[in-house]
Design a protein that fits this description.
The chain is of the alpha/beta class. It is built from 5 helices and 6 strands; from the N terminus they run E-E-H-E-H-E-H-H-E-E-H. Strand 3, helix 2 and strand 4 form a beta-alpha-beta unit. Helix 1 packs parallel to helix 2 and helix 2 runs parallel beside helix 4. The longest helix is centred in the middle third of the chain and has 13 residues.
């Protein structure tokens, strides 16, 4: 992983425990976390340790998985997300993939993490579409997707604050 922000108000709704993973295949020009792109580097952390830290703050609404690319480390993050849901908190995940491409991936770990995600911010960062007034995202092409409603509807359903 690349780092943690124990109390973030910009990485999803409410106060969030934000986990930034190391490694990203997208390499979006203008990314605000370019140090997370190389797969080498960062540090190895146990998901149980992260969950224990998360539980220490009762004010947290949930956890945010960012990066880097969380879906490149889907198996351990799906387990962490399951633990977070177990204490009735929510999970936000950022990804450079689009929702439809994640659905098409045949990797069980990717599907598990997607199934444990409540709010997905999808799509690559596009510097030409940058807008600092967007809610929880950096470029206009990125979507805020309610994953549970999307799965029930069979298509991407946009999240409403």
């Amino acid at each position: 992983m690349a780092g943690i922000v124990p109390e973030s108000i910009v990485d999803g709704p409410g106060i969030r425990y934000a986990v930034f993973v190391q490694g990203c295949p997208h390499g979006c020009p203008g990314c605000h976390n370019p140090q997370t792109h190389p797969f080498g580097g960062g540090q190895v952390r146990d998901t149980g340790e992260l969950f224990a830290q998360f539980q220490k703050n009762p004010l947290l609404k949930g956890i945010t998985l960012s990066g880097g690319e969380p879906f490149c480390q889907a198996a351990p993050l799906a387990e962490l997300a399951r633990q977070v849901h177990g204490v009735e908190k929510d999970v936000v995940a950022y990804t450079g993939y689009v929702y439809e491409d994640l659905l098409a991936m045949e990797d069980p770990a990717v599907q598990a993490l997607l199934g444990e995600t409540d709010l997905l911010i999808d799509g690559p960062y596009v510097q030409a579409q940058r807008d600092l007034e967007l809610c929880f995202r950096g470029s206009e092409n990125q979507r805020l997707i309610d994953v549970k409603q999307s799965r029930a509807a069979g298509h991407a359903v946009l999240w409403e604050a």
